[in-house]
Design a protein that fits this description.
five-stranded antiparallel beta sheet; three-stranded antiparallel beta sheet; alpha+beta; single chain
């Protein structure tokens, strides 16, 4: 089993102290750690990717109006809370990218969605661990440009794993 607690402690330390933290200095001064759902082993999935016959390019708009280009690689199908859902996997020169919005968006999770980088384990199979789902840097302040989750990756089910909404002490 993955040690989520140590991963989360390292991330909190990075956010609080590192020069490349997404937090502004005034946010760092009052930062007390990120909020997470408790780890759920049922949301660490090994999934087969159903590759698309053609890997088409998609322009994904960012919160600042820029455009980033990704390839649509294929689709994952799985069951969450008794409902079958599908998410499209994207890729670019930096690797695999799985943005998603769940039904808790704007309530318990970041309204524009969270991100994952699934781990390829061979034969078109991936580890998709929603316990590692994280907020884009634009969730912390307006200094960042982040890709917005495409409509095809908006789920009607809750994903109660990974990072929750960010609240700074100044909220």
């Amino acid at each position: 089993m993955m040690n989520y607690q140590s991963i989360r402690q390292e991330k909190d330390e990075f956010f609080a102290t590192h020069p490349q933290s997404p937090l502004r200095e005034e946010q760092k001064a009052v930062f007390e750690g990120l909020n997470y759902f408790p780890p759920d082993p049922n949301l660490r999935l090994e999934l087969a990717l159903q590759p698309f016959p053609e890997q088409t390019k998609i322009e994904i708009q960012t919160n600042t109006g820029d455009i980033q280009i990704y390839s649509r690689l294929g689709r994952f199908s799985f069951v969450v809370e008794g409902q079958k859902v599908e998410l499209t996997l994207y890729g670019n020169q930096y690797g695999y990218f799985l943005p998603f919005v769940d039904s808790l968006a704007g309530v318990e999770t970041y309204p524009a969605g969270r991100y994952l980088e699934p781990e390829a384990i061979g034969n078109n199979h991936f580890i998709v661990d929603f316990n590692l789902a994280y907020n884009p840097y634009c969730a912390y302040n307006d200094d960042w440009s982040c890709p917005l989750t495409p409509p095809e990756n908006r789920l009607n089910v809750p994903i109660r794993a990974g990072e929750k909404l960010f609240h700074s002490s100044s909220d």
